[in-house]
Amino acid sequence: MLIPVTISLLISTIFLNFGLALNGSFLPSARIEPARAGAVLGAVESPIASKLIVDQGSNLNQAIVKVITEAKSLPRPQLWQLPQLDQPLRQSPKDEEKKPEPIIIDFDFLAKNGVILADDNNLFFAERPDRAWPIASITKLFTAYTFLDYNPGWETSYEIKPEDKRAGGKIYLFTGDKVTVKDLFYFMLVGSDNTATAALVQATGLSEAEFVEKMNTKIKELGFKNTRLVDPAGLKDGNISTAREVALFARIALAQEEISRASLIKIHEFRTAQGRKKTIASTNALLSNFPDQGISILGGKTGHINSSGYCLVSQFKNYAGRSIVIVILGADSDSSRFDLTRELVGLYYNRQP
Question: Where is the Peptidase S11 D-alanyl-D-alanine carboxypeptidase A N-terminal domain positioned along the sequence (predicted)?
């Protein structure tokens, strides 16, 4: 902005010189001193009201400097700018992948957290899918999955010890009972027996602490960042996961034939080495509801402690081969987790071919 102002003042000064010369305002020529080589008439500041007058004895170069100095002191006009003109242009990354969002469904979900995980691993339905929550005996799916790496043999005999006893639920196994590893595995997944779970861990030759460490290592290897486990049976509040990660893991675990088969048994019976008959019924009431209308259940696991509420993870497949995993965490009653799951099964398959 200084350049136009400066040029304007210079032009005004030149015309002022010519104007004064034509009107006879210069001093008589006899009083004008000969100009030095290269010197020209200029302008100096008059003591009167900051006006510029022509002085034949001043140097034009000095005048120019004064004009520029005067111009700098003038206020600068504010130029109008287009909005956002000073902002850098934003370009969307070419390779950025947009994560699919859950389909919005008007559904009265009566639990704390839950999801429907479709067979492409995207969420068809979600209610607080990434909130950390105690998972109770759903932990036993993680225990079963880890156990397969340390299985001493399905027919290996194990004698129940006093330290294997765990509170919570009905007691089926007692100190001194000699059972096979397979029966311990089935008791854990069918009837969610806590003593059987502790005994199964001991049968691997690892301490409980060592086994839990192996479980958490597996979790990290699978890429689950919001799951951590502190005991194999799920009796403690510290066994934490999310509805999304429970669903993703259940799909992995139930792909193991031994786990899927055990979780689908309604009643498991056997005799100990001493001849005592042991019978345990499944905690999963959905086994009595499916298959239904071309939809089969592929397995699942229940869970409940006070802090978790009633929990359930289940996998289903319809006649067209489309599979889903449904997770319910924090239902308020034993029956509501099963009712909710049945409703979500219908919600999904009634919308899908």
Answer: 121-332
